[in-house]
Amino acid sequence: MAENVTPRVRVPSTAEAGETVTIKTLISHQMESGQRRDSSGNVIPRSIINRFVATFNGETVIDVTLEPAISTNPYFEFQAKVPESGDFVFTWYDDDGSVYEETASVSVG
Amino acid sequence: MRRLNVAALATGLAVCAAAPALADFDEVDELVINGEIEMTTRAEAPEHLNGVLPEIISGWRFRTDETQQLQMDDFDNPAMLAVDQATEVWNTALGSEGQSCASCHDDPAVSMEGVRAVYPKWDEEREQVQTLEMQINECVTERLGAEAWEYDGDRMIDMTALISTASRGMPVDVAIDGPAQSTWEQGREIYYTRYGQLELACANCHEDNWGNYIRADHLSQGQTNGFPVYRLRNARLNSTHQRFYGCIRDTRAETFPVGSPEFVALELYVASRGNGLSVEAPSVRN
Q: How large is the ipTM?
């Protein structure tokens, strides 16, 4: 079970119509690969964020599959075109079934 | 921007004593955090280093552009996750007294301003030099009535990171005279003592050879103004004593334990070598 998982996003609050904005996202997560062993030699079970999705007004902006080699606290920085005012919704899917969601609004005008 | 100068390195190895003249570090970039907090990353050497170092330089200037940038924005700085966690602990009642850090100290951004810059510091009541960790544990055990935190446990390091953020941009200014002087001298003794099978003192790398490469590692002056530091190599916050431990271990020596009086003395001495540099903690290094 992942502990202390907190998503953080940075999205500009305003934009021009059709402007390309830079978005930064970070989620604190230990990203345990499943390859390591503890001090008594037992395999530490895999526990990672396996998928990250960003949408804008319901339309997919980016959809990422994460693999065990990705390091702790996965960080994504990407660009998106903002045609109108609306909401970015960011969703992270955890191996343990948890889903973490964060929303950020952009107003155009 | 920076590249390994093979000729300079070869000369540096041949005449180690002349190394500072060949020092290689980032002389161009300036460290400004969040576009607001301006950091002093080069400063005049404190008086006690006259003739030893031409100037004092933050470890930030010895890192690559990519690593430097991680520290320039709190969103990109992974250490700020630990600060968030420490803020939660700060506001949570712990121990038998039903009190939290916030019960006495309220907002850390105000009450802890300048604290990190002057530690380690002489404690009148206990008649010894205390590090930030020792001071935190004094509060945890005596005021909160909780069990002492592990000296280099996550909770402790995260808390030192939170307290450090309130001093960012302020110059390091530890006192080395008065009652702290004997501890400071003990620390200086350790700094110049060669340890381990490799017979290396702190000074051999960080005073004689800063700016040079030791295999793939770019040697800095070993300043502690950025501690606790988020290291990319282990993807977590690291305390000063953990770093000392790692360095001495790498000389193939039996090291002093984390939190030992020897490391407290060394921490005071090394901090005093950075008097004048800005507190950068929590910083990002490789």
A: 0.75
